[in-house]
Amino acid sequence: MKIAVLPGDGIGPEVTRESLKVxxxxxxxxxxxxEGDVGGIAYKRxxxxxxxxxxxxxxxxxxxxxxxxxxPECDSLPRQHRPEQAILxxxxxxxxxxxxxxxxxxPGLEDLSPLKPELARGIDLLVVRELNGDVYFGEKGERxxxxxxxxxxxxxxxxxxxxxxxxTAFRAARKRRKxxxxxxxxxxxxxxxxxxxxxxxxxxxxxxxxxxHMYVDNAAMQLVRSxxxxxxxxxxxxxxxxxxxxxSACVGSIGLLASASLGERQTDLGTFGLYEPxxxxxxxxxxxxxxxxxxxxxxxxxxxxxxxxxxTEAGQIERAVANTLTGDxxxxxxxxxxxxxxxxxAVIGNLK
Amino acid sequence: MKIAVLPGDGIGPEVTRESLKVxxxxxxxxxxxxEGDVGGIAYKRxxxxxxxxxxxxxxxxxxxxxxxxxxPECDSLPRQHRPEQAILxxxxxxxxxxxxxxxxxxPGLEDLSPLKPELARGIDLLVVRELNGDVYFGEKGERxxxxxxxxxxxxxxxxxxxxxxxxTAFRAARKRRKxxxxxxxxxxxxxxxxxxxxxxxxxxxxxxxxxxHMYVDNAAMQLVRSxxxxxxxxxxxxxxxxxxxxxSACVGSIGLLASASLGERQTDLGTFGLYEPxxxxxxxxxxxxxxxxxxxxxxxxxxxxxxxxxxTEAGQIERAVANTLTGDxxxxxxxxxxxxxxxxxAVIGNLK
Lengths: 352, 352
Ligand SMILES: CC(C)[C@H](C(=O)O)[C@@H](O)C(=O)O
Ligand SMILES: CC(C)[C@H](C(=O)O)[C@@H](O)C(=O)O
Prior knowledge:
2 copies of one chain form a homodimer.
Chain A: E1 2-8, H1 12-25, E2 32-35, H2 40-46, H3 52-60, E3 63-68, H4 84-93, E4 98-104, H5 117-120, E5 124-130, E6 140-145, E7 148-158, H6 159-174, E8 179-184, H7 190-203, E9 210-215, H8 216-225, E10 232-235, H9 237-251, E11 258-266, E12 271-277, H10 294-306, H11 311-325, H12 340-349
Parallel strand pairs in A: 1-2, 1-3, 3-12, 5-10, 8-9, 8-10
Antiparallel strand pairs in A: 4-5, 4-11, 6-7, 11-12
Helix pairs in contact in A: 1-10, 1-12, 6-7, 8-9, 10-11, 11-12
């Protein structure tokens, strides 16, 4: 099995290093790692945030372990050279259509949530965000209009696109509490009307899963008012961008949350995917040993589960993380003094 | 001065009745009220959620006092006959391009917020949402695609549209804490790129206002993590729909929040506008005297301020509401037993 490792910018390299230490400690057989440049660092070295060598390496792999991209020094570059284009490029080039973002509080760490403890304790949801369509990848540009220059973007979803992400979400709900909330804006958008019709159709194949629909404005409200009502949230690319970040913020511990972006291609033991912590490159604390590697380590667990068929080891890592988090070792983000390395070491110590 | 009163569906009529009682108690000279049907009730009586008589009445008025629309009995109607089309129709036909939604906790009622009290106490923001453009009013439809039926919607903003809403927001910020956060998704959308460029240009005319930009995903996160950082949030129609509801949910007291939707037309003493509580029609409690009329009464205060130039009376109502809320009279939504009418009476009692 081949893993492409793309540490990227900011704290990406230091948290990825800890994931790799954990992977090493598991001594899995027949694993080959390749490392490539992505993001601002790739732009500086190769003139492009997603060099073709990096893309080829990712394509040839069974899974991609991704750090973070984003570099303030690149802020004034034209959009196509900016670090975030690397992640958009990987998603489209690799056909990563299904973004899974679990958001759940960690026992004992409810206090990290900005919500009242009784609400925070109830959060245990999974956002399934479509990642290859919507207004992200439609035609777009600038044109002249009666009101001067006009920026425009085409939003759309077709049946095939909604079907495949709906299947992903229903299957995920089956493995959880069997409740699926599809979020759209069907009272205004034609894109959403088709979205909803297809989701309703696919639901016939999952009679054991309870489906409901919510408008995105109401969902944003409910995520704050009573997040415990959600199990799986299925939504499009744009609404998913907003709601998944909102859900993470409700949990409160941005440094602890992981994500998977899955493609259609099957590997020998699972599904091809890209795995990344949701925290981003955090340039303000990069290189200081202050970053929490837990999100990166949990991304590795998702990689082992979804792409390498290693459920046992994934669970082992997740338990080790949970035990570490309830212990004495705390990083700067949790009010402690443990360094990135020390937290990584502690997780490894708890692996068994 | 003429006010068109459109009570609408659900709890709309009963909360509007209390606003009118308050208006009556102020004994303002030269005021004429007209009442019209809108929403589900209008569909049932006239076959259309926004009958042309209602639209004409609104057009002829200096301000519109709006209750709520939405009726579960209309859920299965084709979209163009559904109650919410009435509000979309009013916005576009009357050119109501600027939606102002203040979100602030009421002293003593921080506990209504799902956020921790120290965060809830800090919330005092105004969302300025563009209301006549974006993906709401672009071309839209269904077409065949390689992936089957495809729903599509065109998103756009031109310079003139952004300029006028930016002026509204900068002027509002000037009267508040002089901080403006423009929210967009300029790293992905051309619509947002133009949006941001225009906002930056207009900012030159308001050197006393501090401007920053935030991506919508980050804004959704920050609204939960530290809502106190915001003064005025300026954003487009779609993001504004989501963020303004999220902001209301953070305050917690949906039954207490009002909104104004302003047009370009100047009245003798202010700006033409439509005023509505943000709570919606709440069909589950309609007709039971359980609805809190405070949001409707505060909408009347906004009407007096923005359309009738009655700042004194607006402030008078707002103080009366604040005094009522800190008193003993509590409605069902605040854990008390006071009826809609009793709360209205109490506000009138506190007017002086
Ligand atoms: C960096 C940006 C283009 C990206 C997105 O909008 O998808 C990010 O916010 C995310 O959610 O991964
Ligand atoms: C009813 C609906 C069309 C409307 C909107 O999306 O604008 C509502 O959510 C609002 O915010 O007033």
